[in-house]
Amino acid sequence: MNSLRLTAVILAASAGLSAAFLTVPALAVEAGDKDDGQKLKAGDRDPEFLSRVNECIRKGREYILSEQKPEGFWPYTHAKDNYDSGSTALALLALLKSGQGRFDDCIERGFRWLRTQPFTRTYSTALTIMAIEARWSDHKVEDQIRQDVSQLVKNKPKVPKNDLSWIEEAVRFLLEHVEYSQRITENGTMITERDAWSYPNTPGQDAPDHSNTQFALLGLKSASRCGVKVPADPFVKALKHFLKFQEKDGPKVGRVVIIEDKQHGYVSYKPVSRVMDTARGWTYSAGCEPQGNSCQHPTATTGSMTSVGIASIIICLSELTQREVNAAMWTKAETSVNDGLAWLSHNFTIEKNPGHPDGSWLYYYLYGLERAAVLANVRNMGQHDWYREGAEALMTMQDGKGCWFQKVTCGVLPASCLALLFLTKATVPVAVKITGH
To answer: Could you state, in order of their start, the residue ranges of all structural domains in the chain?
Structure first.
């Protein structure tokens, strides 16, 4: 699980003191329009709920800010390896996504320190690109929460030339470190593709994994939104990779649509039994078939990795044209996404990382759930308002210091960052429409 350990390291999140929190929508609350224990409003539409989320984010931001060192970086103290670049990039991303001003002192110092660090890891490199994009994007946190998709997709970051050069350098690093997920030769010639990412140049950890691969794709997607030209080839190969390594079969799951009472905002759920998907997820390993017996990496199908598979496929589709993805492959990709969403719905929980032997990596799973749902543009997982249920749980789990604690896996700082990235719905939507959602 070494890769997953680093994943959390690099996922830092929100903190800050600016007043640009979630602006609670000015919705009228009529007499008698109260939750009776059964009727609930959608979490991203409920003023009372969002007010509590605001306060939770405020405390979380203050905690993250308190962890910044005078030099400008956020240390990662949960492992012997030095992942300070990753934790700093993650903290900057989270702060900016939760409304911190792009020229605030904490942001200036963080980027100034980050510029002094060489690119050595997939996670930290990808998160650096994502943080730069977030700094120069004109987004409002309330739009993130309410998912004004059309507006968010239109808002392209205006990145200064020196930061564009920085992104280009990061993209070159990522493209130079694509690896073989399988090394198969025929007559001495390699017949497999370089289609996945790992911890480059790390003894004993060079096997590609789906977590590193997803973050490489997220970084490349951010670079593309910033105006940096990224070739189609890595997206084509990654798309084929995730389609190949998804589970081959699973239980049939009927789709469920969310229905919102326009007068009061209450939601209900309606099963659509005529539409059945096959719940198929992904494992952590990128180097063997999910059912294989010889794989040396974790082979459990989990919520965190299934979220990774869904997000990665949608990212790839968003960067490819009909010339690179024909109709048959597009249909296969849509089926894959719908089946992945069926797996998350069938195994839905906000108490643990479903499928993991001991439920570990809860905060990484929740951030992955947010990312998959935002990219697929879905507000419910089965008969669950994933955002409301997840946010309610996170508000309960936050301690008096404003942080979240995760034993053994990734430490307090990254766990807190991941929690805040979920609460702020930090993932940028894409202009890809998945049939059925």
So the answer is: 2-19+42-423
pLDDT at 59 over 70: yes
Give 185's strand partners: 190
Phi, psi values for residue 94, rounded to 5°: -65, -40
Strand partners, 255: 272
In the chain, the percentage of residues whose pLDDT exceeds 70 is 83
Do the beta carbons of residue 228 and residue 220 sit within 8 Å?
no
Q: Which two tokens stand for residue 349?
A: 């929980």
The CATH number corresponding to 2-19+42-423 among 3.10.20.580, 1.50.10.20, 1.10.10.10, 3.40.309.10 equals 1.50.10.20
* pLDDT score of 129 more than 80: yes
What value does the mean pLDDT take over residues 63-81?
Answer: 87
172-205 pLDDT, tens digit per residue, is: 999 999 998 887 777 777 778 889 999 887 665 6
Calpha distance 381→386 (Å, rounded): 6
Q: Which amino acid is at 294?
A: S
Q: How far apart are CA 155 and CA 429, in angstroms?
A: 11
**Has residue 398 got a pLDDT over 70?**
yes
Q: How far apart are CA 13 and CA 424, in angstroms?
A: 10
Which residues contact residue 378 at a Cβ distance below 8 angstroms, ignoring those fewer than 6 apart? 341, 386, 437
- Closest-CA residue to 298 (of 307, 308, 288): 288
What's the mean pLDDT in 350-361? Answer: 93
Give counts: helices (H), strands (E), the chain. 15, 6
- Average pLDDT of the chain? 85
Task: Give dist(CA 111, CA 127) in Å, integer.
Answer: 12
Task: Give the separation between CA 330 and CA 336, rounded to whole angstroms.
Answer: 10
Which run of H or of E encompasses 255? strand 252-260
Under DSSP, the state recorded for 41 is B
Q: What is the CA radius of gyration of the chain?
A: 21
Judge whether residue 294 has pLDDT over 50.
no
Show the 3-state SS of 186-246. ECCEECCCEEECCCCCCCCCCCCEHHHHHHHHHHHHHHHHCCCCCCCHHHHHHHHHHHHHC
Running DSSP on this structure, what letter comes out for residue 433? P
